[in-house]
Amino acid sequence: PREEVAYVTCTYRSTCIDQPDFLATVDLNPRSPHYGQVIHRLPMPNLKDELHCAGWAPACGCFESGAAAKRTKLVLPCLISSRIYVVDVGSQCRAPRICKMIEPVDVFWKCNKGYLAVTHPLPNGDILIANMGDPSGNAKGGFVVLDGESFELKGNWENECEVPPSGYDFWYQARHNVLVSSAGVVPKVAGRGFNPDDLKKGIYGRRLNVWNLSCRSLTQCFDLGEDSLPLNVRFLHNPDAAEGYVACALSGVVFRFYKSCEANNWAVEEVIRIPPKDVSGWIMPKMP
Hints:
By secondary structure, the chain is mainly beta. It has helices at residues 104-111, 187-190, and strands at 5-10, 22-27, 38-43, 55-56, 73-77, 84-88, 97-102, 114-121, 127-133, 143-146, 153-156, 170-173, 178-182, 207-212, 217-223, 230-235, 243-248, 253-259, 266-273, 277-278, 286-287. The chain is globular. It is a peripheral membrane protein. It is found in: Nucleus; Cytoplasm, Cytosol; Membrane.
């Protein structure tokens, strides 16, 4: 069925507006007099969270049939505060409300993680959230896990000795027992905004990581180039597909990753390269 509403995370970071971030509900019904308008705002109870990539709770993960999927909870990780909000969108889809909040101190003490970025439901019903750093803002990859029913913080997902140097986005294909994650940035440095002086200093990530999904172990790493900054990871929208793509924000390159002929091994290849553009009035003469 056609979507009736959309939920959009909205942040006031770097706007000089001292108000909490909010979740906007947008009317998508073309027959509605409010079509295309924000019909509800759900303000967060704290300032300077920086809501990031919202994700659905496990009832609508890619492992479940569309007919059975029920989207009742939305998980909102916060990039700056490291807080996690769980929003009830099932009771009143046009006026959602916060039903649970996990404080940063719990994430810091239980997981030694911070700067939460992207969330997806796992095949077992739990919720996985990728992190970009440690509580002090140093780069640190990996994931934290929420219980899919109680939304309690369970701890870290990956094996302790296999934490990548940075992290950001991820996706998985359960039928191939694989999870692929991208690199990120050093939060305490890059959080101030893009600065050309930070190039060639290891501030911006360069790795693509391949994980054994069931064992939660890191099996392969690909170096995509200095300051490439691989971010968004997407498999093809086919649960049997053994290939996907990752876009690199600073190098302007899109890589294809795919399962090679060797058993359980993966490979990468460059498929798109967008040349930088000559610009004026920016901090660099060429914009990636």
